[in-house]
Design goal:
Length: 319
């Protein structure tokens, strides 16, 4: 009866091995294939008799051989399993993705387990490689991350201009001020608004005003560095945070921006709209009680530019 039970148990194990939805490969110490289940047959297009005694590396040349050997030898030496996950290594062997839901992916994302297999003499002569299809998990997580990034971007973006909204750039200014307090770093703030904007709205209509604001925002985008934070303050007023720049550098930046805006022509319903901006500059070299005071200083310089005739740059402290 025991032999019959053993035979039945072996039969069941073989049936399970062939039907489970994971890849199972058994390799000997020379990395030659000994066992190749149905999952591997279906995904690779190779039948067991075609791969038996073949080198694993010849079957899958995409496998990083030195890394895989090191991983396997560690399993044999320690006698404990090892694992890989798709987030660290998208796949071990490159299989096409046949999942109906995630069919747009070019390959199957995989998690793997490497198990030591003891022989009857207790020595480890084989290892078992188990390959799990993690494509659905990977795609769902990536889509969730992409959605979260998009929501994060939307939450900090001004809808009309595509620049940062006031909440975000003011938060960046707060962080820059804290960095200055700790490390004595420098930063400057440029604030500006569009001259006689009410005349544009009254003379050409609010759609034209929106178009002008968008045109100015596009000029700003072309002028700023990747490290700068450009945003809308409200209405026709804008702010640009320039990390690691003092007021002299910010003044040069502001002058380039002034000239660039003065050179553009906004076309609306067959009419050409010319415009100018007034700008105020301040930096962290002055003693401040908080980051809000830097906004006040830049705003005072902006106000002085408007009182001085507009279409100009003024710097705090005012001469």
């Amino acid at each position: 009866m025991s032999k019959i039970a053993d035979f039945n148990e072996l039969h069941w194990l073989l049936a399970i091995l062939q039907s489970i939805d994971v890849g199972v490969v058994v390799l000997d110490r020379e990395y030659r294939v000994q066992v190749w289940n149905t999952f591997m047959e279906n995904r690779s297009g190779r039948q067991p008799h075609e791969v038996r005694q073949k080198s694993f590396f010849s079957l899958f040349p995409e496998v990083e051989e030195d890394w895989f050997r090191y991983k396997v030898e560690s399993v044999i030496t320690l006698g404990t399993p090892a694992f890989t996950i798709w987030e660290q290594r998208p796949y071990l062997v490159r299989f096409k993705n046949y999942q109906p839901i995630t069919g747009q992916e070019e390959f199957m994302y995989q998690n793997t387990t490497i198990l030591p297999l003891q022989g009857t003499n207790s020595s480890i002569e084989h290892i078992c490689l188990i390959i799990y299809d993690a494509t659905n998990v990977a795609v769902n997580k990536q889509q969730l991350q992409a959605a979260n990034l998009q929501l994060q971007k939307l939450s900090r973006t001004d809808r009309l201009t595509g620049l940062n909204n006031r909440g975000y750039w003011e938060e960046c200014l707060q962080h820059e001020y804290a960095r200055h307090r700790r490390y004595q770093s420098m930063a400057a703030l440029v604030m500006f608004d569009i001259d006689h904007f009410k005349r544009i709205n009254d003379g050409h209509g609010h759609p034209a005003g929106d178009k002008v604001i968008q045109a100015v925002a596009e000029v700003v985008r072309k002028q700023v560095r990747d490290t700068d934070v450009a945003g809308r303050y409200g209405g026709e007023e804008f702010a640009i945070l320039l990390p690691d720049v003092d007021k002299a550098g910010a003044q040069r930046f502001a002058e380039r921006l002034r000239q660039s805006v003065e050179a553009i022509i906004v076309s609306h319903e067959g009419q050409a709209i010319r415009l100018t901006i007034s700008l105020g500059v301040a930096d962290l070299s002055e003693m401040l009680e908080g980051y809000e005071q830097l906004i006040e200083h830049a705003d005072q310089a902006l106000y002085a530019a408007k009182l001085g005739g507009r279409n100009q740059v003024r710097v705090y402290p005012l001469a």
